[in-house]
Design a protein that fits this description.
Layout lengths: L3 E6 L2 E5 L8 E8 L5 E6 L7 H12 L7 E3 L5 H4 L2 H7 L4 E4 L1 H7 L9 E3 L7 E3 L6 E6 L9 E5 L4 E5 L19 H12 L3 H12 L7 E4 L5 E2 L1 H10 L5 H29 L1 H11 L9 E4 L2 E5 L3 H13 L4 H17 L9 H4 L17
Parallel strand pairs: 4-5, 5-6, 6-7, 11-12
Antiparallel strand pairs: 1-2, 2-3, 3-4, 8-9, 9-10, 10-11, 12-13, 14-15
Helix pairs in contact: 8-9, 8-10, 8-11
């Protein structure tokens, strides 16, 4: 079995796919009534790659996919909707719940309209379960990153399932499912690339902030589970960054300069440590073009898909992963010297950089690198 299951709240389960760089999170919630019977809800059920895990893991908890009563789709992307047709066939009792905008697209799978409920049809976007006594709220995440994107708040566990909002690529090291400070870089990268506007992000954060009681856990469709103090901390940080069209309009001139600096650094690296350059590029290209912050062609960075400061930090952090301390110190000094010559402000409190001066032979003339 490739995926794993984890209980992240009361009868609230995460089914996580195996990918290291950009995995999928599928969720199962059992709303257990006083009589012991449950209403079972599956959220963003994934792709054909996930079906073997879904069949095995749901069998352990609810007796199989045939006992799913509700399937919620946060938006229309195939990485979360591709299984919906098979699941609706396997469970004759299941209802699909999604927004009108999402239904307009996923109905192309040939789904039965009579077994579909739109979020907009529930009074105040609240679904109350008569048999179990539970209630859940559907929270709009407009344009994050789809017009009809929706989140689900489970009042019992105080878990907010957010779909692609608060999702991230994997930047945390080690095993486990819960976010640490290392997770923030992947969340920021994901939103800079994939969210269309800063205003849409802020509006969604405002809706989350208005929930009462406030969520204890954020459960996104990609990336780590966010809980504790990091819920407020990461929401606050996300409210202050630029994404999408706002990021493009704000940073293009600076981005061109950073692009030049990174390529200059790679050229100097090739001169000093030729075996490392390809290793660096390979690490940045790990996974696929989406999860890489850069685009490459013939060994050159041709585009930076994230903010300039984050792009520089990605390069700097990769240098810091080198096991050879002399290589690490030398390359950090070359990197900082490269930025200094282009008058790029990139301040870091780093003893290794401060204690080593770049070799004068490693400096360069900008005229040697531009036509």
């Amino acid at each position: 079995m490739r995926g794993t299951m984890h209980e992240i709240g009361k009868e609230f389960y995460l089914i996580r796919s195996e990918e290291e760089d950009f995995h999928r999170n599928i969720y199962l919630k059992k709303f257990v009534g006083a009589d012991g019977h449950s209403v079972n809800m599956l959220m963003d059920p994934g792709t054909a790659l996930d079906m073997p895990d879904l069949m095995k893991l749901t069998s352990d908890k609810i007796g199989g996919l045939a006992n799913v009563h509700m399937v919620f789709l946060s938006h229309q992307d195939p990485d979360l909707t591709a299984n919906i047709g098979n699941i609706m066939k396997l469970s004759a009792k299941a209802y699909l719940i999604t927004s009108v905008d999402t239904w307009r697209l996923v109905k192309m799978y040939g789904l039965p309209p009579k077994r579909t409920k739109t979020v907009e049809s529930f009074d105040s976007h609240i679904l109350r379960m008569k048999k179990s006594g539970h209630k859940i709220a559907f929270i709009p995440a407009r344009y994050c990153h789809f017009r009809g994107a929706m989140m689900v708040y489970d009042y019992e566990s105080r878990i907010l399932f957010t779909g692609d909002f608060m999702a991230g690529v994997n930047t945390r090291q080690g095993e486990g499912i819960y976010a640490t400070e290392e997770s923030w870089e992947g969340i920021k990268l994901f939103h800079e690339i994939y969210m269309p506007s800063t205003k849409a992000v802020v509006k969604t954060i405002e809706r989350i902030a208005s929930l009462n009681p406030f969520p204890e856990i954020i459960a996104p469709q990609h990336g780590d589970i966010i809980k504790g103090d990091l819920v407020v901390e990461f929401l606050d940080r996300l409210s202050k960054i630029k994404v999408g069209i706002d990021l493009v309009e704000e940073i293009n001139p600076e981005k061109d300069l950073v692009l030049l600096a990174i390529n200059n650094f790679f050229d100097l690296m090739e001169t000093t440590f030729p075996e490392l350059k390809q290793s660096f590029i390979s690490k940045f290209q790990k996974g696929n073009e989406f999860t890489s912050p850069f685009l490459f062609h013939d060994g050159k960075v041709t585009a930076v898909k994230i903010s300039p400061d984050n792009a520089l930090l990605q390069v700097y952090n990769l240098i810091g992963e080198l096991e050879d301390s002399e290589q690490r110190k030398h390359l950090k000094a070359i990197f900082m010297d490269t930025l200094d010559q282009l008058q790029i402000n990139f301040k870091l409190q780093d003893e290794e950089v401060e204690s080593v001066e770049a070799n004068p032979n490693d400096s360069f003339n900008l005229d040697d690198f531009i036509e």
